[in-house]
Amino acid sequence: MFCNKCGGIKKYRKQKGFTQAQLAEIIDISTIHMSHLETGSVAMSLECMIKVCNALEVSPDDLLIGEFELNNNATIKQLAEIAKNLSSDENKLLIDFALLLEKNKPNRN
Predict the structure, then answer these.
(1) Which 8-state DSSP code applies to residue 14?
(2) Cβ-defined contacts of 75-78 (< 8 Å, 24+)
(3) Does residue 31 have a pLDDT over 60?
């Protein structure tokens, strides 16, 4: 079961121009259940997540980012996407910032 506390469903639903009722109808659940899924007050089954993703034309990662701590691969992927839209100088600042974080990271046990 998956929770949706990050608000991904609502964000992508609004981008597609769907109301909660419309999305609920598309994926064959009640509007009340759709509301509960959006707010994270109920967990979402894998089957329901697949239906939501298909209806909203997003990946499960799109809905789950923010749900779990990013692993190194996801972090690298997200930084690469951000870096595509930055100038050379901005990319240098991004690298400098990452190096500064690495140099000053707290001792984690």
Answers:
(1) H
(2) none
(3) yes
Pairwise CA distance, residues 26 & 35, whole Å = 14
Which residue's entry shows tokens 């050379």? 88
How confident is the model at residue 23, as a pLDDT? 97
In this predicted structure, what is the pLDDT of residue 20? Answer: 96
Contact 48, 33 (CB under 8 A): no
Mean pLDDT of 104-108: 71
Within 10 angstroms of residue 4's Cβ, the number of other Cβ atoms is: 23
Mean pLDDT estimate for the chain? 83
Distance CA 1, CA 83 (A): 33
The verdict on pTM exceeding 0.70 is no
Q: Alpha-carbon distance 9 to 33, whole Å?
A: 13
Answer for the pair 24, 67: CB distance below 8 angstroms, yes or no.
no
Give the C-alpha separation, 10 to 32, whole Å.
14
Residue 4 is encoded by which pair of tokens? 């949706």
